[in-house]
Design brief:
It is built from 19 helices and 16 strands. The chain is an alpha/beta fold and 533 residues long. The protein folds into 4 domains: 138 residues, Resolvase, N-terminal catalytic domain (Rossmann fold, 3-Layer(aba) Sandwich), CATH 3.40.50.1390; 119 residues, Hect, E3 ligase catalytic domain fold (Alpha-Beta Complex), CATH 3.90.1750.20; 162 residues, no CATH class; 56 residues. Strands 2-1-3-4-5 form a 5-stranded mixed beta sheet, with helices on both faces. Strands 10-14-15-16 form a 4-stranded mixed beta sheet. Helix 5 packs across helix 6.
Length: 533
């Protein structure tokens, strides 16, 4: 007789970022997988749930992957966990309550595979099992309490000693990653390779080179980032303007660490205080140079346009006239390519991109974007409804935490309820504002109508000839462009631009991918596509 097939799910958790660099994830997932394979009968794994860098002391995992597992797991399934403290390190009674009320009472079997201990409805009341579980949870809870108290005391003492000029490994946790603790010599040291990069950044900036150019130079020379194991693989750990700014604003590089109200000056310095102060003066001076507050809106896809190849945002570069009296050229360009992070460095003429996009998706009429069926309001209503659903789920999970004795859960429930109430009020207002507009006739409709009845008339030819200039005139209207920038994010979640293939493809807020548009399809010499409509 064949054994009945078993199904299971794996759960794992670790609480701190240093553990992430260690072996915790691999040990927990591979150990559970191996147990499932060797079990008789074998357990078929449906899904693995893992809470990374989530503390177990207050049940925070109940609102994350562990909470999702509890919702998705079905009666009869086995939950594979390394040991009890992976579920949580709260008070032993709270952990046992979760185990019984939210798992075993729902028909789930829980296997702590490291000790080959299986808990289900048949043995949850067994005194020996309860004693074993209570003992383990007590050890985990007590150990966690001792660690927290010891950590707090050690940290406080390290700060006090640091003010007096005594270095410690604790201080390194609050310093950038170019600082390392030498255990044998009991002192903080600097990674000279990373220190040279930091010096370059400060020197370049003080010489007047901007953060964008600095990022370009570092990426072009394939300089590793300050992250540990920094690489220069396309799309991974590359220099951005934001990372350059963080370096420039970090006073620790000048030998001064401000932490928890303490000023610690025993840190070895990478740059001189004068260099740091000069950089801060330049940052302050440059921050007063606000971006363009008026004039032409260059990028109508602001905040939603991304590069197909590297996922970076796509911006507009402005190319001034090459000849006197010439026209300024606007070009859609991948930001990653600008920073030498993306290999696809071609640029697309903004005029052709926008004409192609508006013709394909809106029939040549930008106005359709603003008025047709209140698309922005309808999208906002859907977004608010989704938010209310998420808040309901969160409130349900928090109620489960209240039952386990979490004292902070009640306050969080109240906050979620307030947020839900405000969202519901906003939804009422939005729904009340939704009304049907008459669709603005598109220029394509106008042309198609004329061609249907007067196929070869002079009027049709004139309309065809004037189609591109008419659309271009609308797109050159800055008020229209401003409205498009404000409206597009309510219709599209993203617009993917492929500068190599010369195409653009939008995805709606509902996740529907629209037809891909090839940029060269729409121009003055290829208007015959209209006849096939």
């Amino acid at each position: 007789m064949k054994s009945q097939k078993m199904f299971g799910r794996i759960y794992g958790r670790f609480s701190s970022k240093p553990q992430e660099r260690g072996d915790s994830y691999r040990r927990q997932t591979e150990g559970a997988t191996e147990y499932a394979k060797t079990h008789n009968p074998p357990i078929e794994i449906i899904e693995t749930y893992f809470d990374e860098a989530v503390s177990g002391k207050a049940g925070a995992n109940l609102e994350k992957e562990f909470g999702r597992l509890l919702k998705e797991a079905k009666s009869g399934e086995t939950i594979l966990v390394e040991q009890v403290d992976r579920i949580g390190r709260q008070h032993p009674v709270d952990v046992l309550n979760i185990l019984k009320s939210q798992m075993v009472d729902r028909g789930l079997t829980v296997t702590f595979w490291q000790k080959h201990l299986t808990i289900d409805a048949t043995n949850i009341g067994n005194p020996n099992v309860l004693f074993s579980l209570f003992g383990e949870t007590t050890v985990g809870y007590s150990d966690n309490q001792r660690k927290m108290e010891r950590l707090i005391m050690t940290t406080r003492e390290a700060f006090k000693q640091g003010v007096k000029g005594v270095q410690s490994g604790t201080l390194v946790k609050y310093l950038p990653q170019c600082y390392e603790w030498n255990e044998s010599q009991q002192k903080i040291e600097i990674d000279e390779v990373k220190a040279d990069v930091i010096k370059k950044i400060f020197n370049w900036y003080c010489e007047g080179i901007g953060v964008t150019t600095i990022a370009q130079l570092l990426n072009k020379s394939q300089t590793p980032t300050l992250y540990k194991n920094g690489t220069q693989t396309i799309g991974k750990r590359l220099w951005q303007e934001s990372s350059i700014k963080k370096v420039l604003k970090n006073e620790s590089f000048s030998g001064v660490l401000y932490v928890k109200g303490h000023k610690i000056t025993c840190i070895p310095s990478v740059i001189s205080p004068d260099t740091f102060n000069k950089a801060q003066l330049l940052i302050k001076r440059n921050s007063n140079r606000h971006g363009k507050l008026s004039g032409r809106i260059n990028n109508i896809f602001a905040n939603i346009a991304v590069c197909k190849h590297c996922g970076s945002t796509v911006n507009v570069s402005v190319s001034p006239p090459k000849k006197k009296g010439g026209k300024t050229c606007f070009l859609y360009r991948c930001k990653g390519a600008k920073l030498h992070n993306c290999e696809h460095r071609r640029m697309l003429n903004a005029r052709n991109v926008e004409i192609s996009f508006m013709t394909e998706y809106f029939g040549g009429s930008p106005e359709t974007t603003f008025h047709s069926k209140n698309k922005d309001l309808q999208t906002k209503a859907l977004s608010l409804e989704a938010k209310i659903e998420r808040l309901n789920t969160s409130i349900e999970n928090l109620f489960d935490m209240v039952e386990t004795g979490d004292k902070t859960a009640k306050d969080r429930i109240q906050q979620r309820r307030i947020e839900k109430s405000e969202t519901e009020r906003e939804l009422v207002i939005v729904k009340g504002s939704i009304f049907e507009h008459t669709n603005v006739p598109s220029m394509m409709d106008e042309i198609a109508e004329v061609m249907d009845f007067t196929a070869d008339s002079e009027t049709a030819s004139k309309l065809l000839k004037e189609f591109i200039p008419k659309l271009e005139a609308k797109l050159n209207n800055n008020e229209v462009r401003r409205k498009l920038v404000n409206t597009f994010p309510s219709i599209f979640s993203k617009v993917v631009i492929d500068t190599t293939e010369r195409s653009i493809q939008a995805t709606t807020k509902q996740g529907v991918k629209m037809k891909k548009v090839f940029i060269d399809q729409y121009n003055e010499s290829t208007l015959e596509f209209i006849k096939s409509e």
